[in-house]
Amino acid sequence: MLIWIVIAVVVVLLVLVAVGIYNGLIKLRNLVQEAWRQIDVELKRRHDLIGNLVETVKGYAAHERGTLEDVMKARSAAMAGGQSPAQQAQSEGLLSQALGRLIAVAEAYPDLKANQNFLALQQELTSTEDRIASARRYYNANVRELNTKVETVPSNVVAGMFGIHREEYFEVQSEERDPVKVDFGQRDATIPPPSGYAAGSGLDATPPAPPAGQQPPTQA
């Protein structure tokens, strides 16, 4: 009789542990899904802003048709539904590259850079890019925690029983990690070092040679 009581207690404990692990996995999965929805909201805002930016640029640089069309094609690809996080990251990276070329074109149009609507759009786009980066970090942190649970014992057993699987990270590609430059404000000029001084060498740099026939100054 006692042995059956022990077995029943062990079974109950195992069930409670399994339930706890399962609930933890579901909580993490829900956090991942919620974090992805936040990214999706910011990406949609980004796509809208880029569309408005293209329309504004078109009013000043309509003949830059190739660049404008490249941005809109990349935007359409990024807006396509049913993409996994990895596919979405790739699409957004291609859109960032096309947007970078558009911004480079806009640099040649002073009237465009002074347009108030254009300035407002580029400020909103900068803010949106920052929010996307923040949402991406939050999403990836939750994915990392979920994947760790799915791959480690004993939670991997429960995950396998209930079909809870790894999730994909939302990672930008290495060549796309630099943020898109959308600031058309005044830039700080870089002052070149005096002639004869090595860049970044400080006061220990070798001074320029004196003109022919002139003695170098005597150092104190």
UniProtKB/TrEMBL annotation:
The alphabetized UniProt keywords are: Membrane, Transmembrane, Transmembrane helix
Q: Where would you find the membrane-spanning parts of this chain?
A: 6-25
Q: Which InterPro entries match?
A: LemA-like_dom_sf, MamQ_LemA
What is this entry's stated membrane topology?
Single-pass membrane protein
Q: What main location does UniProt list?
A: membrane
- Where in the cell is the protein located? Membrane
Q: Does the keyword Membrane apply?
A: yes
Q: Where is the composition biased (Pro residues)?
A: 207-220
Q: Which Gene3D superfamilies match?
A: LemA-like domain (1.20.1440.20)
Report the sequence similarity comment from the record: Belongs to the LemA family.
Q: What is this protein called?
A: LemA family protein
Q: Which organism is it from?
A: Pedococcus ginsenosidimutans
